C-alpha cells in the first residue's frame, strides 16, 4: 500500500502539555484548504495547509496559551472573522482574508497581523467561544462564571447568567436567529436569547463533547462520551431523534454544507457519517403534537 498520502497530512507540532485537546482547538476555513490550531506553548495559534500539512502562518497576540478558536460564517470571497480565546482571560478578534489565505490584510508585510478587537471581562481562562458575523456578536465562556456577549468591535454588551448549578460553561453555539445554546458541565444545557433572556434549559445523562446548530438555527445536535448522537428542537429542547449508539465516545461533529450528512469524530480515532433529515423530524414532530 502507498502511504505517502497518509504522512503528508500529519501536523507534528506539539501543543502545550497542559492543554486538553478538544474540538475548540481547531478551525477549518470555509474552502477546507486551511486548518487553524491553537494550544502551543509560545502563545500563538497557527495556520496549516490541509493539502500538504505545511505551516503557512503563526499568529501572536495573547499573553498566555491560546485555548480555543472559532470562526464566523464566511462572506463572499471567503473572508471571515476568527476569534481566539486564551488562558490570559481575553479574546482577540482577527480577520481572515479568503483571497490571501492569511490572518490580516497584507500578504507582503513581514509584520505580525494585529487583532481587530480585544474582548475583556472574563476572570478565568477562556474555554469556549462562538462568533456570528451576521449579528456582529461574540459569545464566550470561561472556566467558571457567566458567559459574556461582546460586539465584534470589542464592547461588552451583557453577561448570560446561567441557572443554578450552571457555573462551568464548556461549549457554545450561536445562530444568526439569535439563539445561544450553552452546554455546562454535568449535562446541563441552556438556551438564551441574544438579549440575555433564558428561554429553555435541560439536563441530560451524558458528558457532552460536541454540539452544533443546523444552519437555520432550529435544530441542536449533541454528542458525547455515551457515543449517542441526539437531535433536539433548539427553542425548547424537545427531543426529535436519537441515533443508535456508537461503540466509542463522540469528540467532534460537523454538518455537510447541504445539511444532509453529519460527520462525527470518535474517541477511537474513527470517523462516522450519518444521514440527517431535519425537515422530516420537524414534520413528524408537528404531526405528533
TrEMBL record:
This is Neurobeachin. GO terms for biological process: intracellular protein localization. GO terms for cellular component: cytosol; membrane. Residues 6-279 form the Neurobeachin beta-propeller domain. It holds the Pfam family NBCH_WD40. Transmembrane segments: none annotated. SUPFAM superfamilies: WD40 repeat-like. Keywords: WD repeat. InterPro entries: BEACH_Domain (IPR050865), NBCH_WD40 (IPR046851), WD40/YVTN_repeat-like_dom_sf (IPR015943), WD40_repeat_dom_sf (IPR036322), WD40_rpt (IPR001680). Signal peptide: none annotated. GO terms for molecular function: protein kinase binding. It comes from Neovison vison (American mink).
Amino acid at each position: 500500500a502507498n502511504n505517502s498520502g497518509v504522512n503528508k497530512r500529519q501536523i507534528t507540532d506539539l501543543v502545550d502539555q497542559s492543554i486538553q485537546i478538544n474540538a475548540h482547538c481547531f478551525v477549518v476555513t470555509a474552502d477546507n484548504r486551511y486548518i487553524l490550531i491553537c494550544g502551543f506553548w509560545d502563545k500563538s495559534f497557527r495556520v496549516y495547509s490541509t493539502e500538504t500539512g505545511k505551516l503557512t502562518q503563526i499568529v501572536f497576540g495573547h499573553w498566555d496559551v491560546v485555548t480555543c478558536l472559532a470562526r464566523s460564517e464566511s462572506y463572499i470571497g471567503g473572508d471571515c472573522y476568527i476569534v481566539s480565546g486564551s488562558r490570559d482571560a481575553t479574546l482577540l478578534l482577527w480577520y481572515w482574508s479568503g483571497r490571501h489565505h492569511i490572518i490580516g490584510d497584507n500578504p507582503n508585510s513581514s509584520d505580525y497581523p494585529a487583532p481587530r478587537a480585544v474582548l475583556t471581562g472574563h476572570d478565568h481562562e477562556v474555554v469556549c467561544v462562538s462568533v456570528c458575523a451576521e449579528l456582529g456578536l461574540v459569545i464566550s465562556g470561561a472556566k467558571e462564571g457567566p458567559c459574556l456577549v461582546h460586539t465584534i468591535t470589542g464592547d461588552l454588551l451583557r453577561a448570560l447568567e446561567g441557572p443554578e448549578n450552571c457555573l462551568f460553561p464548556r461549549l457554545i453555539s450561536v445562530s444568526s436567529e439569535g439563539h445561544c445554546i450553552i452546554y455546562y458541565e454535568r449535562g446541563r444545557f441552556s438556551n438564551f436569547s441574544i438579549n440575555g433572556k433564558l428561554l429553555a434549559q435541560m439536563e441530560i445523562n451524558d458528558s457532552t463533547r460536541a454540539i452544533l446548530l443546523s444552519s437555520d438555527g432550529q435544530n441542536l445536535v449533541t454528542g458525547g462520551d455515551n457515543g449517542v448522537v441526539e437531535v433536539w428542537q433548539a427553542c425548547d429542547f424537545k427531543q426529535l431523534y436519537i441515533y443508535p449508539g456508537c461503540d466509542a465516545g463522540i469528540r467532534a461533529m460537523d454538518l455537510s454544507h447541504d445539511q444532509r450528512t453529519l460527520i462525527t469524530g470518535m474517541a477511537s480515532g474513527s470517523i462516522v457519517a450519518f444521514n440527517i433529515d431535519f425537515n422530516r423530524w420537524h414534520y413528524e414532530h408537528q404531526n405528533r403534537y
